[in-house]
């Protein structure tokens, strides 16, 4: 730790002397303005303060202020060495910092240009550092020193879906399904268990199942820019096909990289003909499950770490089920100049029942940035009887994007069969336009020889399972574009896979939407959705068109049509969208079946709730309920909250025990413990949390309304925002002698926050008044006397309070 003298800085170096003769107040001799002589003066002692470095907010910690030698008007702040190491200074600057030997504190004041200023209004220590001394220059990129592993705690994220159906023959069936993640955080380690289960019951049968689909532990290795994982997982590879295994992996984490070097998160699009449940699986594991209303849907919050093929199932309330596959896309394997990116994995392939399905394997891949424009990469996958080697090169085309090409050679030997050798060639292209509303395009092509064998195919053959999915060629294209000025946005995706031993499959989807004005009609919207899928089992094509017209403040009426091989369906809708809830009522006709549906979603600080129902003229009825939320518990407190997907990062906010404080534009509120959890925190990116001061209750006052955190993956962050709750009143304070406290004396609450300054004749305007609450009046650098509020306090008139001699208690330290 080191001491920094405020007198070293011009803004605070000259104490100010006050001419009290100009003040028209009684008892001029007892006025105490000594603490105002020096700007930013802080009374010596310990304070819990947020740390602001060049506008960025670090986590709070206890800061000690000491009196300056020979001048009580100046205080010195002790900056601990561990805090100095987190400021993002260049190594040579950090190593050259001096220390105050008597306190062992960092001497930041000795570095030219560095200034420190306490801001007690926001309970912050403001540190300004010239960019020349900072190791990081990117204003949008948080230095590693700011990354926060959070605090220990337990968490549960869940997604429950239930429905009951009555058929046209009066038969009834009930089903409930759910999935989620439970876990613990201990230091930098995150222990996680993914679960899924379902129960179906009808007159004829009852079926239920529950399983822990994945149990694993991981931790970030921030200095190495990597992530260590132990347990059950899918092989996450840029070169080889994914499969499930039990083991360990060590890989550079793309989430720790700048945005332009990160991979893509998969998106799922489609059209629901009625209230429907959408389930996304990878193998037997449920990745995502939700309910959607009739019309086009787009799911984009699936974890970007997912790779390989995903199975999508759309279950309509009339029993119709759509099934299709999507291919996840990868950014070409590019690295910064001189940077090494790697992925290492070792373990044994295993199925969903945790049965080992193959011998031990090891895989590794490496990418090296040759210069600004070229990267080279390669890797291998080795096990008993199977070898795969890959090598490739990537080229940065500057304004035209990036392209990569690689070739993989695989050799497989199964029992007494001849060894098979084959090659697979792949070309990828991508361009990201962040400056143009996050436009993303991606295109990929892969060709595999008939003799090329993937690891999955090798494992199936080894166990005697016959496969008919010998891939020949795969085409993938994805494009998004938003023209905000024109009110237009579009999304396109196309995937086609040809096989050597079966018919090809393909899926195409397109979605376009447009906002426009027609005469006096403002804010009209129209959307067009096209989809086509083809496989061995079925071929499905559809066109959906919808038109929506504003009606009232937040209501809309609309028309939509849906066309597929079964005919045409027409529908009319009425919807209302508010901040905390929205609902949609629809009626449709066509294809020999008339129906009515309703869909309601409510967004609360504890969970997201959806209710849906439908009736068809055939007599069938259905009712559904969806609940998605989470629970986080730590030694600091606990709270129910909206869901953080897959046991992800979250931020716990403490408002000093004050309940009902609105956060993030009212999307979250603190509970009775004064705790709220924000589940939308970004990994390795700064997350701002602020109190919605416009929605604060009249008896609340925010002393600190904004905080910031940069959390590592899976962390439970913790931040405090200072809120005072209680009544406000004008009071007159008298001492036991009948005199008034000195003009300029400070009134502090039990938390040490200044809530008033004494004016002439003991006058003060107090905030945060509660029955039996206590305050301390301080002057002359000492706590002098105590105020105790009565149980019944008249707020409509000035009240006189007797200040009793101060005695140290557990409330005031």
UniProtKB/TrEMBL annotation:
Residues 730-788 form the PapC-like C-terminal domain. It comes from the Bacteria. InterPro entries: Fimb_usher, Fimbrial_membr_usher_CS, FimD_plug_dom, PapC-like_C, PapC-like_C_sf, PapC_N, PapC_N_sf. It is a multi-pass membrane protein. The keyword Transmembrane applies. It is found in: Cell outer membrane. The keyword Transport applies. This is Fimbria/pilus outer membrane usher protein. It comes from Metapseudomonas boanensis.
